[in-house]
């Protein structure tokens, strides 16, 4: 398993640079929702974006993996691997709420 350590985080802004501070995401039922980009970072050779439902500061942030799709376009995908999600989630908590 790659190292998910705060000392290995590189802050990025690729999604924000490509789409602005708010992105539209479509769920499995075809509903579109707006999300604010909280932060983006690279760690352990992968890229992640932390999003929050637009207009709801009390909503839990959601973490997505950033991948390059067809023609190099950026895509946000759900993290399906439980271990990867847990590691990234814990790392984000550590970065957001340092002890």
From TrEMBL:
The protein's superkingdom reads Bacteria
Record's protein name = DUF1292 domain-containing protein
């Amino acid at each position: 398993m790659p190292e998910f350590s705060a000392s290995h985080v590189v802050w990025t802004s690729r999604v924000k640079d490509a789409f602005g501070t708010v992105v539209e995401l479509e769920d499995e039922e075809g509903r579109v929702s707006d999300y604010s980009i909280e932060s983006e970072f690279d760690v352990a050779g992968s890229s992640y974006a932390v999003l929050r439902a637009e207009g709801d500061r009390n909503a839990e942030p959601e973490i997505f993996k950033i991948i390059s799709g067809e023609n190099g376009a950026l895509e946000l995908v759900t993290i399906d691997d439980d271990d990867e999600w847990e590691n990234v989630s814990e790392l984000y908590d550590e970065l957001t709420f340092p002890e």
